[in-house]
Amino acid sequence: MDYKKVSRYVVLGILFFLPVTFLLFLYPATHNYTPLDIVNESVKDLNSFASESENPILLENHITVLGFFGKNPMDKAVAALNLKELVYDKFKGFKKFQVVIVMPEGTQEAVKELKQEISSYQDIRFWHFVFGKPTAIKSVFNSLDSKVGLRPDLSTDRVYVIDKDLNQRGRLDDRTDSELEKKKQAYRLSSYDCIEVAEIKNKMSDDLRIVFTEYRQKRKGEFNSDTRRASDLKNSDEEK
Questions:
Q1: Which of 7, 73, 150, 240 has a beta carbon 3.0–4.6 Å from 69's, enabling a disulfide?
Q2: Over the stretch 62-116, which tens digit does the pLDDT of each residue have?
Q3: Tally of domains within the chain
Q4: DSSP label at 59?
Q5: Residue 21 belongs to a domain
Q6: In a 10 Å sphere around its CB, with 0-12 CB exposed, 13-18 middle and 19+ buried, how is residue 227 labelled?
């Protein structure tokens, strides 16, 4: 018996069947994920804002990462670069994905400088800046669920995930495994800090993938929503 030939076939068989077996284990799990929570409903759209685009930039019917960079956009260069490299570059190929940054009127020239900083000759067609009055900016921001408010210059380092139906997405319970074991009180994650690379890379990126999976399954008629809305959680807490 040619043991070398037999061992070669065994190795080849393992190399072929092992990935297939792994994929078979993964396949059932793709239909049993937990949808990303709706933490807030009826986010205000951007109808009153202007942009450089020929078409209106709106939140409805898009999956949007929404941010507020304020009167001095270059001060947000680090946040913008983190957002571009860790989120935009990953998801810009997904249908209906966009990044929208809300800006005060009069910051158009400063925004051009920031765009040069983040573009590096790359495609930023799905990254939009919109411009409006301070009252309009505050109105949109106040329609969000946020632990922190806007700074006096109308900026924040946090960004928000808005789905196609103007719902704000996040986590109603963002406790770690350790915190769950210690039975600490639940707390939510309704926005993502662009300065914290780990939060953007590990949490926001995963959460966006879940939202895209949800809409893909909806198109295929495979989606079974177990999403808990913020209002549902509030009602259950009141009943306790």
A1: 73
A2: 999 999 999 999 999 999 999 999 999 999 989 899 999 999 999 999 999 999 9
A3: 1
A4: S
A5: no
A6: middle
